[in-house]
Amino acid sequence: MSPHDPGRRRHDRVVAAPVLAVRAAAAVAVAGLAACAGAGDAAAPAGDPVAAPASPELAGTVTVLAAASLTDAMAELETAFESRHPSVDVVVSLAGSSALAAQVLAGAPADVLVTASTATMQPVVDAELVEDLPVVLASNTLEIAVPPDDPGAVTGLADLADPGRTVALCAPEVPCGAASAELFALVGLVPAPDTLENDVRAALTKVRLGEVDAALVYRTDVIAAGDEVRGVPVPEAAQVVTEYPAAVLADAPSPAAARAFLDLLTSADGQDVLRDGGFLVADAATS
User: Fold this and answer.
1) 21-24 long-range contacts, Cβ below 8 Å, gap at least 24?
2) One Pfam family, short name please (predicted)?
3) Residue list, annotated binding site for molybdate
4) Binding site: what residues are annotated?
5) I want to staple 44 with a disulfide (CB 3.0 to 4.6 A). Which of 18, 48, 224, 264 is the partner?
6) In terms of Cα–Cα distance, which of 64, 121, 118 is closest to 94?
């Protein structure tokens, strides 16, 4: 199913139309990235990004602020980009999207911002701190994570509203928390969390360490955890979709490298990395 299925709800739909409108433009732009390489602004060529030839004109450090749910994908993309541009050092800072946006608004130096909702990106856009309108890279949905032995016998969302079970949720100010709140409202349940975490990976860690019976995280986090957790699908989660916008920042210290990194994210190779991690990507971005 397409990540932009009109039947789905989006917890960030209050965002101004210009940000959401870039999805269509992004789909068109991605198809031409591999053929439109330019000095300091080269798209990743088709094939293995690690094996792509180096571009000696790029050098320095590119700082990427990325949502915590992108941890594994960003690690792979960082390696690929540095292999292609050996004179560039990619520094990825991972945190909750609202915290990342606050850093940018406070003047923290960074080159690229990738959040887990258009709602958390919007204040940065409104402050005119992006070089161009953000591009939506992919989307995600929620899933319940439980320990492998499932001590709480969790079978669905109703169990996360049971005070007799220990539950971790994301704090409401971060995208996974906002999506969780919408999902519970959709099914008419009031959750009973024992802890509210500042980002989705912190909630997942509670499950991995056996500190809670369950956590509501993204499906990509369940995939990334492997055998350390077990996923409990939530059918209704398909109606609450989290989108991931990315933008080069207006005051990027390394603007050329920043644009090249965004090119990699939107290229077929970058989209393959996201898809392999369980993210939903637009079909048009695979060409």
Assistant:
1) 21/133, 22/133, 22/134, 22/135, 22/136, 22/245, 23/135, 23/136, 23/243, 23/282
2) SBP_bac_11
3) 69, 97, 200, 218
4) 69, 97, 200, 218
5) 264
6) 64
Own/partner pairs for 232-235, CB < 8 Å, 24+ apart? 232/143, 232/144, 232/145, 232/146, 232/154, 232/155, 232/156, 233/143, 233/144, 234/142, 234/143, 234/144, 234/156, 234/157, 234/183
Task: Please list the pLDDT of the chain residue by residue as tens digits (287 residues).
Answer: 433 343 444 443 333 333 333 333 333 333 333 333 333 343 334 444 444 444 458 999 999 999 999 999 999 999 999 999 999 999 999 999 999 999 999 999 999 999 999 999 999 999 999 999 999 999 999 999 999 999 999 999 999 999 999 999 999 999 999 999 999 999 999 999 999 999 999 999 999 999 999 999 999 999 999 999 999 999 999 999 999 999 999 999 999 999 999 999 999 999 999 999 999 997 534 33
Rounded Cα–Cα distance for residues 216 and 234 (Å): 10
Please report, for the chain, the start and end positions of each structural domain, with discontinuous segments joined by +: 9-30+60-139+243-286, 142-240
Please write down the HEC assignment for all residues of 71-103: HHHHHHHHHHHHHHCCCEEEEEEEECHHHHHHH
Q: Which CATH class is domain 9-30+60-139+243-286?
A: alpha beta
* Equal CATH topology for 9-30+60-139+243-286 and 142-240: yes
Q: What is the 3-state secondary structure (H, E, C) of 22-78?
A: HHHHHHHHHHHHCCCCCCCCCCCCCCCHHHCCCCCCCCEEEEEEEEHHHHHHHHHHH
Cα(153)–Cα(159) distance, rounded to whole angstroms? Answer: 9
**Which amino acid is present at 57?**
E
CATH number of 142-240: 3.40.190.10
